Amino acid sequence: MHSTANPIRQKLILAVQEQDGRSAVDDEEHLDYSAGKVTIIPDLKCWERKLDEANELGQTVVVKFSATWCGPCRNAAPLFAELSLKHSDLVFVSIDVDELPELVTQFDVRATPTFIFMRDKKEIDKLVGGNQEDLQRKFDPYCQEK
């Protein structure tokens, strides 16, 4: 078992337990970093539905393309979840590149993690890589709009 001394991990474990009534496992391979307001997109139907909802409400969608085997993706996941709790005016979704290759091709994702910002169902910004400072800064323009 890994230590839960990291406050972000503790917050995420509690968020998973409280939000879903599930028991979070303290193991990096099993810990659900989708805590907070991040929707995991399992299929194209769910993807279309989420985009339609966000479009109707005029919301910006933040898409994280990642993979279970990707170390930088796992490192960026807690910050992504934390940002989703902090910025409820944005829609946060996570896509596994191995599960939805159609979207990987559509958005020309060549590395993981890749973060894509969308509005009106169109890409408006993109960040490739798991640098946490870059990810944090990328949110600034979208969070000051409202």
UniProtKB/TrEMBL annotation:
Check the record and name the Gene3D superfamilies matching this protein.
Glutaredoxin (3.40.30.10)
Domain Thioredoxin stretches = 18-144
Q: Which Pfam families match?
A: Thioredoxin
Protein name, UniProt field = Thioredoxin H5-like
